[in-house]
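User: My instructor asked us to take a sequence, write out its structure as tokens, and then describe one feature of it. I'm not sure where to start. Here is the sequence I was given:
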Amino acid sequence: MEGWAINQYCQGRWDCTQKKRKRKLSIYWKKVDMMKYAYQRCSELSGGQKQRVGIARALMQNPVLLLCDEPIASLDPKSSERVMDYLRKITDEMGITCIVNLHQVDIATKYSDRIIGLNEGYKVFDDAVEKFDKRKRWKNLFRF
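Assistant: Let's start with the prediction itself. The structure tokens for your sequence are:
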């Protein structure tokens, strides 16, 4: 993997040699199923592909925590599910905590272990997903 991809992902990392960059980049690009797009320009990628590149880029930093602010906000449903599948799989495999800010409650309940619900800046729910019942009193708070 030559050129822009390598430089893009190890920018500013003095300890990252070209060989290390290639090896590390290929590991994370495989995790998000992006190897076949390694030589494409970013402007040629779809929104979901760009999000997956962003995930790979974050993983290059060896994080212990991922903060994802609306990672699927502008994606179609199929791409949204794919990105969330990758986030869940990777964080489980690597033992990384992932905090995701979402407005889609159905997706939050599908992919999360814990839900923290906010309404007008106040915490209205903080518990395991199993205890979250969107059909009852939360319906009015979250405006389903």
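For the description part of your assignment, you could build on this observation: The beta strands are 65-69, 97-101, 114-119, 122-128. Try explaining in your own words what that tells you about the chain.
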